[in-house]
Every structure is written in structure tokens, then in C-alpha cells.
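Schema walk-through. Below, the input block comes first and the output block second. Nothing else is stored per chain. Lengths vary across the set, and this one has 280 residues.
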Amino acid sequence: MNVKRIMIGIACMLLFALPVNTTYFYEKVKENNFMEIINNGLGKILYVGGSGPNNYTKIQDAINDANDGDTVFVYSGIYNESIILDKSIDLMGECKERTIIIAQGKDGINITVGEAVVYNFTIKDVISPYLGIMLYKTTKDIISHCDIYNSKDGIGLFFSHGNEILECSISTDGGGIMLWQSAFNKVKNCNVINTTNSMSLFGYLTYGNLITNNNFLNNRWDPVFVNSLHNWWFHNYWDNWNMSIPKAIFGVNFIWNIQIPWIQFDWMPSLKPIEWWENE
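--- output ---
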């Protein structure tokens, strides 16, 4: 009897530990049921572009008028603006290839709030020192189905924890994905292609991150880390690795100002590109 109660208790803990927005969001994505996502009854829907009589012409104007729990749905088009996302809303593009944000001298999308979703955008023409998508002091955000190219740097997380970067493609002149003092984030099913530095992890508070099922292709440098320990690399594809043994990922750790070489491992690297996009 006591064993049964313990098992029920553990099951309940696991259930309530799941991020509600992540679970709901991905159930509907797998079903291709996007209209149910934006009509989930949690808030109002604000439309950008398209032909509706009260639709907004700028994404930022719709965000400014939204409240936490709302959805901003962006019709296909080219939007010449840099976005500040400071509300816990779902920001959704109609079609990734045709819903394009051309950054205007700042980050493409700068996120400063937790429990937000950004889905289905292409972001381009971001200049240094800005990023395609920047997360600052956020938790439980989801960035999914976003492409960043023709830009200096891709996605950066700063002091941000428990976020998910999923099914994004990044091709930049500089860095692909950067984590700075950011823990327990997930980077999954992404393509990092033709960058100078594919992925960087910095700081003692950057730990417990899961990097899995990604493709690292034609990058000048493999991922590097500095003072970032205990991250989990698993089943990524590396175009410079063709052996079914763990792949070493090199970095350094500073102890009392002494630089010590350090190694992490992708414990089960994929031997062929991971075609996660077949499920789109």
C-alpha cells in the first residue's frame, strides 16, 4: 500500500513539473493544429499584416497592445523592425520562409520576459554586436522553427534558465548559439551551419544544459566552453567526426587564474545528419 502511494506521488510530481506551455504547444505542433494553438482560450488574438480591417502593420505595435497570455499572429510579409518582447505571449508567424523580420540596427527579437513563445520566423540582416534573437534574464521561453541568416550572430542567452531552442536553423558570419551564465536550457533539433564559432558556453553558472539531436555543419570551429561544466551533449551530428565513439568537445577552466584544459563529450554522436525537418 505504501509503495503504491509513493508511486502515485512520484507520478503527480512529474506531471506538475512539466512546463504547461511547452507540453500543450508541442502536442498541437505535432498535430499541425496551429489554429487551436492560437485559439486556446487563454487570451485574445492580435493580427499583424494580412487584410483584416483592424490588423496591425507592425509587430511591435501589436506586442505593445497585448497582455500576458495573448497571441500575436503575424501574416506572411517582410517586417522592417527590431522587436522587443517584454510580455508572456505567443508570437507566431504564418509561414517561416515568408514571415521575415529584417532587423533595424538592433537585435532581431530581444526577449526580456519568461514563458513566451516565438515560432515560425526568419530573421536576417542583424549587424554586430546584436543578435538574431537575444534572451536576457528569462525562464521557460520557447524559440522554435526560426531561421537566422545573413547576420553576424544567431541566438544568445544571458542569465537565462530553463528555456528551449528547438528546430531552428542558424547560418551566420560569427557565432551560432551562445550561452552566458545560463543553466538548464535545451538546444534540440537545430542546424548550425557555416558559422565561425558554432556554439559558445561561458561562465560557472552555465551548466546542466542539454544539447541534443543538432547538426553542426561546415563551421570553422566546434563548440567551445569556458568555465562551463556539467553540460550534456548527446546524439549530435558533426561533419568532422565519423567514429562511433564519444566526440571530445574542448574548453578551458580557470582555477585561481590558472588555465586548465577541459573536455566534455558528446557521448553518442550521430554518424549521419539528423533529418528532424522531415516531421514538419
